[in-house]
Write a structure and sequence with these properties.
The protein is mostly helical and 293 residues long. The chain has one domain: ABC transporter involved in vitamin B12 uptake, BtuC (Orthogonal Bundle), CATH 1.10.3470. The chain has helices spanning 2-32, 39-55, 60-83, 91-113, 138-160, 162-172, 174-179, 184-210, 220-230, 235-255, 257-260, 264-279; strands at 128-131, 134-137.
Length: 293
């Protein structure tokens, strides 16, 4: 049971980090109905900018502040220069725009900071901590705490504040929200800025775990099953879906891998997502859209 608990808790910790990446997608989708495929590149850009500034001798907190400003500027620029002119265009047009943005942001990061691999040290040890009979990594505890706090703050922001009310109004009916005085451009700008800040937190944690390299942008592929299972419109559902995905992939790898072969962790979340699409296409916590004909 001690080993089972270690595997389960490790999976839950990983799931929290998946949720943090996925919630960047949810924020943009709820505000504008756009699936922002460039979120992974924003995570990479944040991590690469931070580690490059630190390596130039800038103190940690100053580097963090500079990177945060850079991410906010990047997110707002993307919204105003690229996506705002495409409002009311077909969904596929918007998706292809974010897909193109993904490669542009990666190219910009490479032009500014180079393409070499960097190690990122946040000052947190990987040494294990004993909690009863369970051994957990200090970094995993730290990363899970930061991820949970980030997702929790965002859930409060969008469920308990005026901005959250405006966001829900825009997500439900943009025309009606505009008619009652909601400033759509302001909401979109704020949401993109928040998504940029989330990309910074995710970039630092994932960069410290796997290294800052261009494959870091592919972390979005781990977020896709979380989005499908939780629902593209649910912040709380993203958190719960991340926990489900993280726990099940680790348990499947440990307890099924020895019987049917390794590598289950890489595809098992997509198996769950496929089942979810067949049973509940809107996700376990998403809102089913009803269209009048």
């Amino acid at each position: 049971m001690g080993f089972f608990a270690e595997v389960l808790i490790g999976g839950l910790f990983a799931g929290l980090m998946y949720s943090m990446v996925a919630i960047g997608f949810v924020l943009i989708y709820k505000a504008s109905g756009v699936f922002n495929f460039a979120q992974g590149s924003m995570v990479l850009f944040a991590a690469l900018t931070f580690v490059s500034i630190v390596e130039k001798g800038v103190p940690f907190w100053w580097a963090l502040a500079i990177t945060l400003v850079a991410m906010l500027a990047l997110a707002v620029a993307v919204e105003r220069i690229v996506l705002r002119p495409l409002v009311n265009r077909p969904t596929m047009t918007l998706f292809m725009a974010t897909l193109g943005l993904s490669f542009i942001i990666e190219g910009l990061a490479q032009t500014l900071w180079g393409s070499q691999v960097h190690g990122l040290d946040l000052g947190v040890s990987e040494a294990p901590v004993k909690i009863g009979s369970i051994s957990l990594s200090q970094f995993d505890l730290f990363a899970a705490t930061i991820a949970a706090a980030t997702v929790g703050l965002l859930a409060l922001l969008f469920n308990r504040t005026r901005l959250g009310l405006s966001l829900r109004a825009v997500a439900a009916d943009p025309i009606a929200a505009l008619a009652v005085g909601v400033d759509l451009r302001k909401v979109w700008g704020l949401v993109w800025a928040v998504a940029g800040a989330v990309g910074l937190v995710a970039g630092l944690l994932w960069g410290a775990r796997v290294g800052v390299q261009f494959s870091l942008s592919l972390i979005v592929l781990k977020a896709l099953p979380v989005l499908i299972i939780g629902g593209f419109s649910s912040v709380n559902g993203t958190l719960l879906a991340g926990l489900i995905v993280g726990a099940t992939e680790k348990l499947a790898e440990v307890y099924l891998g020895s019987r049917i072969g390794g590598g289950i962790e890489n595809w098992f979340p997509y198996f769950l997502a496929l089942i979810c699409l067949l049973v509940r296409p809107a996700g376990l916590f998403g809102e089913t859209q009803v269209e009048r004909v």
